[in-house]
Amino acid sequence: MSATPYPYQWQPARVRAEFFRLLPISLFVVAFGAAFGLAAVQEGLEPLQALLMSVTVFAGASQFAAVDMWGTEVSLVPLLAVVFAINSRHLLMGASLYPVLRELPPVKRYGVLLLLTDANWAVAAQDYQNGRKNLEVIVGGGLVLWLAWVIGTILGVYFGGLLKDPQALGLDMVLGCFLLAMALGGRKSTRTLVAWAVASVAALAAWRWLPPNIHVVVGALAGGVVGFFWLEPGQGGQSRRDQEVS
Q1: 169: which DSSP letter?
Q2: Can you tell me the distance from the alpha carbon of 28 to that of 34, in angstroms, rounded to the nearest whole number?
Q3: Distance, C-alpha 159 to centroid of its chain
Q4: Contact at 8 Å (CB) between 183 and 118?
Q5: What is the pTM of this model?
Q6: What is residue 138's three-state secondary structure?
Q7: Tens of pLDDT, residues 150-166
Q8: Residue 246 DSSP class
Q9: I need a surface site. Which of 96, 145, 158, 192 has the fewest CB within 10 A?
């Protein structure tokens, strides 16, 4: 039995290292933050409102969706439904890191998740697959990405947007390529490859035939179902042993 119920050894120095590790990709986040800031003020938000949204919400796709639905009268329930649908992938992202997260006290655990993004989750998940527990990247990487998003929003709000259309230059592909590189760099098995394939096909089908943004959720759920029902040899037994120890 473990001497402490929360055995994770937090390393502050690694938080700083992970901050700089994700600094290069955060530069592209500035461009999208600027585009959001510009779009927000064009849709009628006050500069301070747009800035507060980026500071407190910190969810790029959801914020763009909220701005698209903004008007003199905002339908709150549809807005909440759309934002939840887009961000529901975080349920699976957090669940995938639970074997590490449970080694932190609940307050720290949920505090860490406030900074969870696609990018730092991908790094943490890859490190975990390779046998390294690295929650510091969630905090360090999340902080640099949050700062980049807020700085970009300020530029877009007060300076008219340094980059009105990041997609025109292909910058929307940067994060996708980064996530793909993280996936390819992790441990691969037949189970993992099948999960990728199923998630890809499901996401493409949903993108083609379902409402916008639903493909993100469908792809994540499809891949998650494969992982849930197809356990690697010994994985189920190990899980039960972990439960007994905890």
Answers
A1: G
A2: 10
A3: 28
A4: no
A5: 0.76
A6: helix
A7: 999 999 998 865 555 65
A8: -
A9: 158
